[in-house]
Amino acid sequence: MTPQEARRYLESLSFQGMKLGLDNTRQLLVRLGDPQKSYSVIHVGGTNGKGSTCAILSSILTAAGIANGLYTSPHQVTFHERIRVGAEMIEESEAADAISTVKDALENGPGLSVTYFEFLTAVAFLHFARAGVQAAVVEVGMGGRFDSTNVVDPAVCAITSVAMDHMFHLGDTLEKISMEKCGIIKPGRPVILGAMEGPALKVAMDTATERGSKALLTERDFSTRRLEMDRGGEAFSYRAGNENLENLFVGLLGRKQVENAGISVTAALALRERGFDIPDAAIRLGLETVKESGRFENVRKKPALIMDGAHNPAAAMALCETIIERHGPGRADIIFGAMRDKDYTAMLKALAPAARSFTCFSPNVPRAEDPKKLALAQKDAGIPTRVAGGLADVLSMIEKAGGDSLTIITGSFYTIGEVRAAMLGAMVEPD
Length: 431
Known about the structure:
- By secondary structure, the chain is α/β, with parallel strands linked by helices.
- The chain has helices at residues 3-13, 23-31, 50-63, 92-107, 116-131, 167-170, 174-181, 198-210, 255-273, 280-289, 313-327, 344-351, 371-377, 391-400, 413-424, and strands spanning 40-45, 68-71, 83-85, 88-89, 135-139, 156-159, 191-193, 215-217, 223-230, 233-240, 243-250, 297-300, 304-307, 332-336, 355-360, 385-387, 406-410.
- It has 2 domains: 3-289, Mur-like, catalytic domain (UDP-N-acetylmuramoyl-L-alanine:D-glutamate ligase), CATH 3.40.1190.10; 297-424, Mur ligase, C-terminal domain (Protein-Tyrosine Phosphatase, Chain A).
- The chain contains 15 helices and 17 strands.
- Strand 12 and strand 13 (304-307) form a beta hairpin.
- Helix 3 (50-63) crosses helix 9 and helix 7 packs parallel to helix 8.
- The mean pLDDT is 93.
């Protein structure tokens, strides 16, 4: 199978939509020899922060000399972004070979139909086994209990946060959403819990108790203290029992990244207890050198252009806080595109204190909301709001931005991915 044939095959799967459940993924992995059982897995779920937490933990493992896989979603431009060994994306030839192998396994036996995400999960697990990784950091796609990644038996799992998102699939209360997220907690395996509101936390703690899983809770079992911010990231300290790490620095921007770093460090220490050689120096280096696109990413310094994939109200609030901390209120020209199943009215309200203007845009995906409806949701805020004439209009706006201006592209990873691809002269691969 050539890389072009592999890409076309994946695109054909993208039209099969979304399906929550584990049976198809399990059957497919059995046909492949259960590659996910050949290495330790760190399984990370949560509403917000899980992608950053995964990136930080993978960077720590790499700094410790531990060969590790990283599986995240969604991608912004190419599916290769989702599957990495260390910092290296899966190569064209490796991807084509793995896709061909998984396709053969899918077709070699009784009828088995899988979605794009189920298929790509199998590709990732197979690639990690072939690369000989010692550990794989695996991000939950959505929810947890019925997410395709939940076929793993993790050494450690983490739930970064629980907030209102994906309500159609996960439920309309924090308790219901937390129950789905907590589906990744496994008997006898430690679970690291980020900051959660009362109802969500109760579900998490009860689930951990029922399954005999040691719960490590932020502000009870470990804590971080933000020290200062600079243009490159955040300085902080970390404490957990007898472990005190002072003057740490994480190379990601925003107060929330300190919280994500705390979860990542706690996971690294839990892995240390399970026999992984992760010295403090590796923790420091991994934090400092982590890279992750689409999280308050400074794409251009002057005039400033920042991309952030905030795609729900909680993430929009965190983004607004970071914008104001670093650039002041009412300064940002925000290019905003959201999916119609998101609470974009609340997202726009959360972003308003940082905004000088809004430009509403619709990326070319079926779930994207009409930009005219986005603009209507913003009409009473008293902030200049316009509807973009299309991608070319957005690119022109970016190109013509003045030297002291601040442009923020946000609302969805699909939005920032489409703009990024256009700036690179590429096409976004469907998922």
